[in-house]
Design goal:
The complex is a heterotrimer of chains A (about 325), B (about 375) and C (about 325). Chain B is of the alpha/beta class and about 375 residues long. Chain B is built from 12 helices and 12 strands. The N and C termini of chain B lie far apart (about 50 Å). The mean pLDDT of chain C is about 85. The chains are: A mainly alpha (about 325), B alpha/beta (about 375), C mainly alpha (about 325).
Chain lengths: ~325, ~375, ~325
Amino acid sequence: MTGPAAAQPTTAAVRRLAAVRRSAGFATRFLGRTDGLVGVIILGFFAFIAAFPGIFVGPLEDVTTATGLPLHAPYAAHVFGTDELGRDILNLTVHAARISMTIGLMATIITIVVGAVVGIVSGYVGGVLDTILMRIADFFLVLPTVVLALILAPVILDVIGAGAEFGGIRATLLVIVVVIGLTSWATTARIIRSQVLSLKERMFVDRARVIGSGPGRIMRRHILPNVVNLIVAQAVLTFAGAVFTETTLSFIGLGDPVAPSWGQVLNTAQAAGAPGLGAWWYIAPPAVCVVLVVLSFTLVGNALDDILNPKSASRLRVVDEP
Amino acid sequence: MTEQPIPAMLPLSPADIRGRRQWPLPKLADPNAPLLEVRDLKTHFRLGRAWVRAVDGVSFGLADGEALGIAGESACGKTTTALSLVQLLPGNGKIRGGSVELFGIDLVQKSERAMQRYRWREISMVFQGAMNALNPVIRVRDQIAEPIQYRLDQPEAAARQRAIDLLDMVGIPRKRADAYPHELSGGMRQRAMIAMALACDPAIVIGDEPTTALDVMVQAQILDLLERLRRDLGLSLILITHDLSVLAETCDRVLVMYAGRVAEEGPVRRIFTAPRHPYTRKLVGSFPNLHTDRRSLAVIQGQPPDLLTPPPGCRFAPRCDFAMPVCTEVVPPEVRFSDGVRVACHLFPTSDIATVGGSTLEGSTLGDMTQR
Amino acid sequence: MNGRYLLRKVTQAIVTIVAIVLLMFLLFRIMPGSPDRAVKRPNITIEQVQALKAQLGLDKPLVPDQLVTYVRSTLSGDLGYSFKFRGQPVTEVVADAIGPTVLLIGLGELIAIVVGLALGSLSGWRRGGLVDRVGNGVSLILYSMPYFVIGMPMIIIFAAGLHWFPTSGMTTSGGSSDAVSQLVDLGSHLVLPLVAVSLGLIGGYSILMRSSILETRAEDYITTARAKGLPDRRVLWTHAFPNALLPMVTWIAISLGYVIAGAITLEVVFNWPGIGTLTVEALDSRDYPLLQGIFLLIAVSVVVANLIADLVYGLLDPRVHA
């Protein structure tokens, strides 16, 4: 692409992106894939439950409002059975959907924003800044989130104060969001940086036009639109990881019993001895939900990645190329 | 190698060459059949629900001790033809018609299992870009010894020794035999590939652009090597290249392909000095000549056709200076001339005594057909 | 393998470990609430806190006194004293718990490497075949399941339900004393958690190996190998597999961090007396010295594992020289 067309990388890139998204081609390609289709349906279902729990169950039960027999297998009044306090498992699971998905969403936003900014700046500016940023990223790549969370979460929680609330979100959950975000950005940063590096090569053709624009402007108006596709696909895959990690962190005790996520429900189940007692009804619903959500995010993320970035360098492609 | 090198002056007859084989002919072979006879080969690639007609009716033959060059632009089907001979097509490729007869045995009919018996022992290949064609984690000597050990059932030590001897024969010093591919230069890697191709004393060696990735000096050395080996070992060679100078130097006959079909085929001197097919003329003419006017480069206008939906009739017609209405409607039949050249072009129509198809080897020695 | 490569990798590892120690220093001596955090425990008075701080030198200036002391004591193996375990040195507490975890993870990795790599190779080599479709699907689901989500149903079905295996623990207390029956007892307790760890790992390994084999299969030297008329089996295992293995080596080492995280959750589920159970106990009681000790152990292990992977890669790939 040379000449006047190349002189408008921003508009061209944005137009291309919009065209891809809006065209019937994209929709049919996406939904034509089994993985994309199944993933979207499952996610839609869970998003709906998370947004409108009231349609399915009453308010979140606690010790005082529990009506069922303790730790009972499913029966007429409670079709998913009850926990050790007599609370309805269906009730718990539906409300936990909102917690798990919200935490996942917020953590993903932090991860993607930090990762994209670091990736773009590091890739574009290069030099010493790039080296330093990537060394830091390497540190976070080596140590997985759960391991870092072991000491980060309790300390940060201690600093903030366990009972505090920020904008209606309890401190415990906020800490999980922050910890996941702080530790997961490195993968995204590296992937986006790769893309930016190869974009930088092509940018030399456009240098003549962008002389006079500061680096911030170039990054915002020229590079960013060209990595948006990559960011979108990465965001969905990150969401899968965030839900996965949050479930693990809650399970080992960093969650909030007052606002339980699926991981927290499983933590309580474990503490009540559910597996040893064979209380499958306590464990199956939250477990199945987690697996379905993570699985469908992964499927959708890979479908998006395949369609939007056919030659992308993002590794860990879990699903087959068509 | 047990054979003595034969002085260059003595030409070998096909019978001589066949008699010098290290191993007996394959079980099903017909001793009187020509070495290789390809008839109307059609190889297509599946793309979604459609087929790309990469090779669409190619016929040629190869006699013992002969060197046949296959020339043409990129994507004209040269490599696909070669891969079709040994059924090494990528996943979506399929031979959909024609026959490939090796000593009279039709290889197209063979299953993958059966093909394994013929590969390398009868037909071996030298690929372009030996850096990628050699396994990076296995020593060169071991890669050459492998077919000797596993296809010829030789013990490991003997196979390794023979591999080192082969490397020596192609000019790689013995002490470098245990190197890994990346430790050798481009030229040495290509030599190693040639040594590997010779490991089982095959009847035919196919070289797919064996010198293209190399610089000119090394290219000359490799060609010399090939020529010497051909002479000493009585090799039959199929050389695929887009570089006409290489063909002129090394081959006895040349097959010119265009868009999956044969445009012209004949003895190398005839093709170069008196090309008949408009494409061949352009090809030969576009090659820069040291001795003539250097101010402009003759270029063939246009692009090769899309092989998913090829044009009806002659595929060169859209770019041909001599195109006639019939060219866009009817596929030109092949015509044979007395000087041994075959052409498929409406400029040379068949007469009532012309033969179309049949054995191409026959045609080149029979004196028949009119000339235009 | 080049000495320079070795030196570079070892230096990187050391730098990372230094960063880890500094991070801990930051969290426990610099962040708000420190250093009281390091000595606080339930039912302690302010005076006792002050006394402890003086005793441990926590009232001295941060830099250089505290930093130097901190680094020196860490390097010499003095990691403080756990207060959950009544003043036992952290090193002792951790050392007691390492064995079971190493047993579980070690055996699990062994099984997963053999099965996962083989399955992935066969899947990718005969892409689209039955092995591929079933294997890939199962791997994908396993990959989306946190380890404890794999473990819990196993207890419910095989232990609580079928009574084939015990529901928890590593050994049966009060069992007989002869070696053979002790070994059998250990074995029966080991089966379920081991299978859970292995399955968790197999998911990821299989998917990545499959991907790697698919890429390798398209290489020219594989065409050469087939052209030599070698049987398909040999082309796969002698030519394709060694090349496809190279990126897996790195992945196996990187995933150690995630295995440890997963093993922590599994130990909770199976009541396995290893580092995982210890971690959860330390988290619950905010036993910061113990937490620091565990974190240091895990983090250093992960860094060392990455280093070993780099070195092994250097040995396996003859192209790596500088």
